[in-house]
Design a protein that fits this description.
The structure is a homodimer. Chain A contains eleven helices and no strands. Chain A is mainly α. Chain A is globular. The N and C termini of chain A lie far apart (49 Å). At the A-B interface, α7 and α11 of A face α7 and α11 of B.
Amino acid sequence: MSDRRMSPEELEAALREIGATRYHNLHPFHRKLHGGQLSRAQVQAWALNRYYYQSRIPAKDAALLSRLPTAELRRAWRHRLEDHDGTEPGTGGIARWLKLAEGLGLDRDYVESTIGILPATRFAVDAYVAFVRERSLLEAVASSLTEMFSPGIIAERISGMLAGYDFVTRETLAYFTPRLTQAPRDADFALAYVKDEARTRETQEAALAALRFKCDVLWCQLDALYFAYVAPGMISPGAFVPDGHAPGALAHGTAA
Amino acid sequence: MSDRRMSPEELEAALREIGATRYHNLHPFHRKLHGGQLSRAQVQAWALNRYYYQSRIPAKDAALLSRLPTAELRRAWRHRLEDHDGTEPGTGGIARWLKLAEGLGLDRDYVESTIGILPATRFAVDAYVAFVRERSLLEAVASSLTEMFSPGIIAERISGMLAGYDFVTRETLAYFTPRLTQAPRDADFALAYVKDEARTRETQEAALAALRFKCDVLWCQLDALYFAYVAPGMISPGAFVPDGHAPGALAHGTAA
């Protein structure tokens, strides 16, 4: 590691390089998901587990919001809460994710209970919320920068899943459409903040490490899904077992 | 779930039933480890990742100690810190684990840095420390009760690893010998506490859930090791890659 302070442009390039090498669009689970190579049961497992991530995003954003020092910054961050929690019952990202899960044939109450998620999903997501609560504000903001890379994955996901799965409709995927405009707006704000606030090599390295950490949080969730529901197919005790599958059955290539 | 309060004996039986069905001695990774079926590289990965768990146990015990209300209880818990951190440099469980890792051919500084561990290891272990900090004292104590089940796994590990691996010596496994007496003593104390303090069905269920949570923490670490280093052999970006293995090579059955 050089000790030289990076220019804001160099810092942005280093952040983008992390996305190019460690963002979860590169994970084999996502390649299968977007390529139409998963069973309905495997897509259900993805939606069920990812719901826990979705459901904790407002906790993460509220923790960050509580640490922002000015009304201007808090106003800029506050709409993230509205995006996820909505303005009335049935609106917002979490409600749309529940519709996605229901569209895939999952029971809404079961999804909301989160009792069937993999322990690794819970540990990874909770690590993200704790990171935002406990680390420096700069690191907390930098950890959100995976949104710089999300429009690409979402566009690929919508077209890939509609083409690949007869059990997926455009309505089921309605969650993602607003994210195509929300994520870049949020990422632009956070990137400008990080480029402005990370003024020493040390804080720049901390911002890069925060983004690597967040990539690990996302990657780890897909590792766990792959392990439990693709190969070798070992489902953790107590976690979701798709209809018609005995525990361990997915390990032997019998996924529907 | 019945609403009836369990007798202390029934509660103990329910706790033991969790061990019989969810303790990590049942995990395929441990069955391979103890059966002599892993390569040296795979045993190294286990020792490297498990070091992070060992290194955080005193943080967990100090957090619990800080919440105990009486000198008597604190004295009873305090020796756990001594067991792990030792009385002088080079003594205690963490130092013995480092010797185990070195005995397997790992660099001591690399192990202590924890830079090569799997993200899932970090998330699971950190979840355990956070649980002990944040949940009720009863749940914190109950989460330690996996020690009720550890003498069996340790005895099996020592004999299995000595018989199965020519690169493992009795000296390398010196970590485990004191644990054969420490763990039952600690478990007896914690079990008596839980049986005494869990006086309603609700708190009894919370104690059972805490032990299930702890089993998940241990199980999840082995899932991640299996996924990265056994099958399919997908090593997380930045994590330990054994000597002579290109990333992903383990996925194709080329483990040394």
